[in-house]
Specification:
Blueprint lengths: L15 H14 L4 H13 L10 E11 L5 H11 L4 E8 L4 E11 H12 L4 E10 L2 H8 L18 E3 L4
Amino acid sequence: MADKEDLTRFGVAFPTPLIEQFDQYIEEQGYKNRSEAFRDLVRKTLLQPSALQSDQDVAGTIVMVYDHHISDLPIRLMELQHEAHHDIISNMHVHLNHDQCLEVIAVRGNLGRLRHLHQQIQVQKGVLYAELSVTYVDELNKLAHAHNHGQDPNPGQHGHNHNHHHNRSAD
């Protein structure tokens, strides 16, 4: 956490009903003060995919709910994921009820590519919900990892294993 001399203080005016709702939120979430809650809300806002540049490397999730009875939809979703295998770390498939499945795809890669994958998923007939949520990739880890990847003409075949887990239940 930053030292006090690194903090910038400023005033914010809220309408009384809004600050009362905010204070209730703070209490429910277990924050110690308004500043902690406000900082977290700002961080969350700045990490919205729309606030980041397409060329940034990020990590996150694509969460979707879909009707697995829609003709060929499960196959098409799997094909999309295979086309983006270099950006997919893992996924989890959950049966919500007789008709609907929840899938969480852990991703890490170029935000532009991840946005494209998300868009391809959300426009499929039968996908009821799809959301991309991301955070920054640790730049230090990226630099440390880059020494092995340089200008590798064959990504994915670079001397060490990457475990990709595709946990799927049969429908």
